[in-house]
Amino acid sequence: MTHQIDQRIPEIDATLSDEWSNLDLLAHIQPQVAQQNGPSARVSARALNTVLGSLEIDAVREHHLTLAMAIIELSAEAASPLPWSHDDPTIALLRAAAKLSLISPEASSSAAALLVDRLQHQA
Q: Which pTM does this prediction carry?
């Protein structure tokens, strides 16, 4: 039975892959990121925390998803797991950013570069 479940049907795969793909959406988004930051732009945890510390929480809250991606990338590079928190999600991410800038200030992230760019253009 397991063998039958694992088998793929080429005709269905070809139809569904185009129909269910978000490749067009991603192709539209990715060039904008590359143009803004260059292909290898990265920002360290220390630099990100410096920028975040100079802003009001509501200004950061508008970029919550980008902040989350930056913290995830920085945590992975620093080999530091994200702590569980019952705080407001943005507050929890700001605390994680502060912790990362202390334990691994040189960890860097392309999502952090994108966030810094967006925050600086907003100000």
A: 0.62
- Tens digits of per-residue pLDDT, 75-106? 999 998 877 778 888 999 999 999 999 999 99
The DSSP output letter for 84 is P
Label each residue of the chain as H, E or C: CHHHHHCCCHHHHHHHHHHCCCHHHHHHHHHHHHHHHCCCCCEEHHHHHHHHHCCCHHHHHCCHHHHHHHHHHHHHHHCCCCCCCCCCHHHHHHHHHHHHHHHCCCCEEHHHHHHHHHHHHHC
Structure tokens at 66: 């980008």
User: What is the Cα–Cα distance from 123 to 40, expressed in whole angstroms?
Assistant: 24
